[in-house]
Amino acid sequence: MLPKSGSNVHLAEKDSFIQKGFVSWIRKNIRKRECVFYETGAREGICKCGYPKTHHVDEAIKSEDHTEETWNKDGHFREVPTDAFGDITFGGLGKNTSKYARVSTDSQPVILYQLLTEQWKLSPPNLLISVTGGFKNFYMKNHLKKMFRRGLVKVAQTTGAWIITGGTHSGVMKYVGQAVRDYAMSNSTTQSQMVAIGVATWGTVHNGNVLVDPQGCFPANYEMDVQGQGHLSCLDNNHTHFLLVDDGTIDGCGGVEIELRGRLEKLISQQPLGNKESGVTIPVVCVVLDGGPGTLNTIYNAMLNGTPCVILEGSGRIADVIAEVAILPLNNVTISLIHQLMKKFFGIAYEKFSDFNIIEWTKKIQDIIRMPHLLTVCGIIEGKREDVDVAILQALFKASRTSKSVGAGWERQLELAIAWNRVDIAETEIFTEESQWKSADLHGAMFSALIGHKHQFVRLLLDNGVSLNDFLQKDTLKQLYFKAPSCSFLCMLKKKAENMDQGLDPTTLVTLVYKEVQELLGSFIKPLRPPWATRKRNSRSRDETSISLQGTNQEGSQRPLIEDTGEPRRDPGRDLFLWAVIQNNRELAEIAWEQCGDCLSAALAASTILKKMAEEEDDEDEAKDMQKLANHYEKHAIGVFSECYDCDQKRAQRLLVRTLPSWGTTTCLRLALEADAKSFVAQSGVQAHLTQIWCGELAVDNPVWRVMICMLFFPLIYTGFLTFSRDKVIQREARNSEEMKNIKAGTGSKLRRTYKAPDHASLQHMKPLSCSSRLAGFYSSPQVKFFWNIVSYAAFLLLFAVVLMMDFQPTPSPREVVFYIWVLSLVCEELRQLFHDPDGLRKKAMMYIQDLWNILDVLSIIIFIIGLVCRLIPEFFYTGKIFLCMDFVVFCLRLMAIFTISKTLGPKIIMVRRMMRDIFFFMFLLAIWMVAYGVAKQGILIHNETRLGWIFRGAVYDPYLIVFGNIPTNIDNAFFDKNACSMNGTDPLKPKCPVLSGNHIPAFPEWLTIFLLCVYLLFTNILLLNLLIAIFNFTFQEVQDNTDTIWKFQRHELIKEYHSRPAAPPPFILLIHVYRFVKWCCPSRKYKEFKEEFSQPEEEELLSWEALIKDQYLQSTQLEQSQSSEGRIIDIAQNVTTITDRLEREEQGSSAAIEKRLARLEEQANQSAKALQWIMDSLRSLNDAATEAPILLTADGESSEGLRNMPEKNKGGFHISARQCQYPNTKVVRFPVPEEKVPWEVCFTSYMPPHYASEDSGDHVDGSESEALDNYRNPGGRTGMRGRGALSCLGPNLNVDLVLTRWRDSKRSVLEFLAVWDESQAAWALPGGPVQSGENLPVMLMKVLDQKLYETINTNIKEGTKVKQVFEGYVDDSRNTDNAWVETTVLTFHLDRTSPFMDTVATSHGSSQTVQWQEVSGKAQLCSNQRDNLRLIAKLHHRKF
Fold first, then answer.
1. Which DSSP category does 271 fall into?
2. b/e map of 1034-1056 (b: 16 or more CB within 10 Å)?
3. Are 132 and 205 in contact (CB under 8 A)?
4. How far apart are the C-alpha atoms of 383 and 1148, rounded to whole Å?
5. C-alpha pair distances (Å), 293 with each of 133, 141, 312
6. What is the pLDDT of residues 522-563, one digit of tens each?
7. Residue 689 scores a pLDDT above 80
8. If pLDDT is split at 50, 70 and 90, which confidence band does 1022 have?
9. What is the Cα–Cα distance from 829 to 823, expressed in whole angstroms?
């Protein structure tokens, strides 16, 4: 317990240190506002700031006669370190703990973002959701509440979003908190925490005093008192973080936080999203539920800033008003319609609205509808319910789709979808049938998906055109490894690099990875290098293999050598697969495996790598996952190869021995052996190939008895008694040739052209074997070698037995000498097996000592050497014979190895080996009982026995014999014989007698010894022996199903051994060993492996066929999974969920549609009643022409009055920029002018626009009328502003824009125009400016154009040549007022490429960042007016826009 306590103390000290650092940072960076001027307010003793007199510093309290200044909210505050921060714990069930801080209204958003991400350790969001709407007395219907919660939880789960609300337990914020609670209940892990940030006004927080502590509260216990909160608000207990905005007052008025919240949201939206290189920033979306006029202002300002808004239809009030008019044409959204909708959705509150309010809201609603790309209505439309999460993501996609750069918009959408991991949205919104993607356009998205382990997106991108060959270049692969998520393999490499004091740059990391992978695969493969080093490596390995094959071909290879000079193709699928495998990422590895050029070798290599990694892994769970993934790829290899073998046996066997350049020039068979893939090796295809190797040049179907007869009478091989594989091939080719001749004779000349005769090399290769070749092929067959070695070994044992029993003389006889020579030949063969191996001595030695038969070989040789040494020493002659006799036992046991090749006895030997292991551990249990009973019996019967031999007999040997039924006689007086023992233990041949009494009768308690014997027999003979039988039975049942697989796997080693073994059996093999030793310095040939090199066309054809079979295997696997019980259950569950969801949607949709129709019917009935009443009144007073018709709505909801009063010429639209609420670069607000009131012809009695002229001091606003202003009236209609504004004069202000064009190249493929950067608007614009009367061009153009070019254009304008006028007239400018407006003349001048002015246009300004040639197209980044002019330019030059 002490170490645990010490650990807790250490953790507590660490937490305390972190907490002190946090407190220090807070007090240094976070401020609150404090009143510095006390003035009594409405209540005695309370300042106008809301705080009592005691909460003010002494300097703030002035004397009563101090009347120099009065309390000012803007000037009488200062910032001091905050005194409310830390953790807040809410009472009740769950006791949620959140973070909070009291911040000043003037806080820098950067500091607050650091607080959230660095101090509160929040991960930067992939999406920012700003929820706004009803604050109090807000009730949502159950189906909308469920839809909102579920959508918010889903979008938070998939995108990692931050949600920002008002933070109080009321209105919309309460429903957001409930969604956070639902998410927390379904996800117990803290890593997937849903972040909800409440930004509230400090002065409106109920019980805020419990949060105050200058040193911070850790935690502060906050009690929610909803009933007693009064006009204040309690914090919501489900929000995770709170920013309490302090303006220095506690008057209970909200809205203080709006400005700071907006600035914080804007800062977050400017932060990079995920990969900084992509240039994509964090997206922001505003979600609106219910709400009043303040919410309308929030929506309006958000959309002006480019933030998309999602309106939840059916949530009430302003949200429903906007949802109602969003589907209507803009001309139909009139003041009267807004009147009716406000009355419908606001109820009693409508009576408090003035006419000016309705006009202002109508104007703002019209501006909102005018931005449909930023407005999304989510609800029940035509009976179909939309999901909130889909609506939010689609709103962001819709906003990004209308960005200035279309390509950048699509890329931003894709980056957002990847960051949110919403592949469903990407499939429906991005990768549509209309979209056409190039591989290069998707490389950035592919990199982000791989680094983020978004396997669904990786598959989607590959399906939509990503080429791995183009994507996975040198630098990309380096960055993939360098930026890959941390895993045990990469951590191990980093530690190795640190130990070697080696910097770990991307190139070094990739090199270390491939080196480590080579070590995991085995030392038998050639060095693996990154793909950029493949060409050099492959050319070198191909030369080495060519040399090896030439040597093999001279030994009688079955294939002709085909020289290949082509470069092997690079396999990017292998590199990506290797990257995924070392991270133990199953999903990405599966996708990469499907892209591999050689899937069979990749699966076997992955199985090898993962099994080796699992052995070195310390984490047991991780090791199990690696082992599971290794078995998965072994299953893949089995499936692909079995499909290949079923399709074409010959091709499938070629896959086993094909040299693999991508995996160190090894083979699939060797990788399977290294991976210990027993099931793969046990396949019939692999076994058939091993059988062919086992038979060598002989045919597989030769009976064993024929082979053995030919071993004794070898001339029979020339008589056809045995069949050779070459003979069968020749017969088959002859049959095929005969069939082709018959077909050719029957079909005529057409086939005569297509039939291709075998070439000369093939004919020569298919010649029958010569006599010497048959003899050499017969005796070099591993099968024949094995049989000769069995005969040789039997003769050796017979000679050994004869020597031991009949001819073991002090002086070695000739037979004994022959025996020693024979043993020497066996020793030489063992040494050859140990040293002559391509894996190297170390690898072979490790494998050698793991084989039981090799252990027996080494043991027999060691015992033989000991016995031989003793035999040559006269004093130890007999001892030497004993050792040799024991050696004979070992040699006899070694004879069992001959049964391993037998399909019947081979598996049984495996069972015997497993049972020997079981009985070894069983002996430990038996030994405990034997020793316990033996020592107790010996102690009771014999007194002070000193002879160790007899002690061992009594304590161990006798109990062991009892197990087999040899009951001792000395424990029972009835069978005691004192002549069979020695009284004092002096007779070495007799045991010592038991303790005797005076009359020479045993004195030991007879009942006790008999009882001990009975108990011992009960536990050993009955319990333990039956336990051993049960263990054997269990082992047999367990091994029975796997013995065949294990035997087939071990069969390879036997075949490999005899394949490389010399043809002569011992002792004649000694001659070959001597010959090879003499030739050791210049070996005649290299080691003969089971591998084969193919030409490049053959290689490509084989890999294409393998890829086809792999696709068939994957399809069959998917079909099996879908038809399996588990797959069917999953499908049924998905179908049930879909049907339930659809029924729920239809039910909700039908009820909502019925309610909507009833409301419309009721409204139309009211309108009809009003119309009938008006008709009746009109009939009564026919002479009264001034009777006003009622305001009616058309079927679409439009106002008939608005349509009737609107001039016909202006129904197409009015100026928009000239009616912006805020006049540019000022604080002056225009009078709202809705669409229907823009024309001067329409009566607008309440129209009272402010007056503004920039030459006045400040932003002067004057409501007085001037007679001079009445002489000038804007031809575009009302603007909501009188006066000159920011323009230079009343009336029209003339402006000239020059469109300078050129062809990009001599082929006239692209038309370009000259654009100038406008710093005031922060956008590109056409060069131009204001002109005075009599001027043709603005003087400002001289700053952009060369003076000679300027004069040339000016001259052409005067002469009326070359310069064309494209447009002249009124322009919708944001500076326009009712009395001053801009009129623009657009001129165009085309420059030829041979013009001397071409070089001076762009260089005259001195910076390419302010002057730029851009393409004349719809992608031009200009304002709407200038884009329209550019469209005319394109039409003039016959170009598409």
1. S
2. ebeeebeebbbbbbbbbbbebbb
3. no
4. 8
5. 10, 22, 16
6. 777 777 777 666 444 444 443 433 333 333 333 333 443 333
7. yes
8. confident
9. 10
Q: Going by C-beta distance under 8 Å and a sequence separation of 6 or more, which residues neighbour residue 326?
A: 311, 369, 372, 375, 377
Asked if 284 contacts 307 with a C-beta cutoff of 8 angstroms, the reply is: yes
Instruction: Report angle CA 1220, 1221, 1225 to the nearest 5 degrees.
Output: 80
The H-assigned helical ranges of 1335-1423 are 1347-1359, 1398-1401
Q: How far apart are CA 886 and CA 567, in angstroms?
A: 60
Residue for token pair 């030059």: 1437
Helix (H) or strand (E) holding 222: strand 217-222
pLDDT at residue 111, rounded to an integer: 92
| Residues 721, 899: Cα–Cα separation, whole Å | 26
- pTM for the whole structure: 0.70
Residue 381 DSSP class:
E
Q: What gap in Å lies between CA 61 and CA 41, rounded to an integer?
A: 13
Nearest by Cα to 891 from 836, 934, 853, 942: 853
For the cut 70, the answer to whether the pLDDT of residue 749 exceeds it is: no
SS3 1325: strand
Predicted confidence at residue 1055, as pLDDT, reads: 84
CA distances from 704 to 695, 701, 709, 720 (A): 11, 9, 9, 15
**Residues 189, 211: Cα–Cα separation, whole Å:** 28
Q: Could you tell me if 82 and 65 are in contact, meaning their C-beta atoms sit under 8 angstroms apart?
A: no
For 945, the 3-state DSSP assignment is coil
Q: What is the pLDDT of residue 1203?
A: 39
- Give residues with Cβ within 8 angstroms of 657, minimum separation 6: 667, 668, 669, 689, 1090, 1091, 1092
pLDDT at 1404 over 60: no
Q: Express each pLDDT in 1084-1110 by its tens digit.
A: 444 456 677 888 888 888 888 988 988
The C-alpha atoms of residue 482 and residue 476 are separated, in whole angstroms, by 10
Question: Is the pLDDT confidence value at 1210 over 50?
Answer: no
CA 645 to chain centre: 35
Among 724, 714, 808, smallest CA distance to 766 is for 724
3-class secondary structure per residue, 1218-1261: HHCCECCCCCCECCCCCHHHCCCCCCCCCCCCCEEECCCCCCCC
Per-residue pLDDT band at 710 (split at 50, 70, 90): confident
Mean pLDDT of 1053-1076: 82
Q: How far is CA 107 from the centre of its chain?
A: 38
**Positions of E strands within 85-210:** 85-90, 97-104, 127-133, 161-165, 195-201
| Residues 1247 and 1278 sit within 8 Å (Cβ to Cβ) | yes
DSSP state of 383: T
Cα→Cα distances 564→393, 531, 665, 1145, Å: 55, 21, 15, 66
Extended strands (E) in 156-203: 161-165, 195-201
Contact 132, 288 (CB under 8 A): yes
pLDDT tens profile 16-48: 666 778 888 988 899 888 887 777 776 777 787
Give pLDDT, residue 113: 92
Cβ partners under 8 Å of residue 306, min gap 6: 374, 399
Vertex 987, ends 982 and 992: CA angle to 5°? 35
Percent of the chain with pLDDT over 70: 81
CB neighbour burial string for 321-333, b if at least 16 within 10 angstroms, e if fewer: bbbbbbeeeebbb
DSSP annotation string for 733-770: HHHHHHHHHHHHHHH-HHHHHH-----HHHHHHTSPPP
For 491-509, the pLDDT digits (tens) are: 887 777 777 666 677 788 8
The CA dihedral of 790, 794, 800, 802, to the nearest 10 degrees, is: -160
Q: Report the percentage of the chain scoring pLDDT > 90.
A: 7
What six digits make up the tokens of 1249?
């626009």
Query: DSSP 3-state assignment of 78?
Result: strand
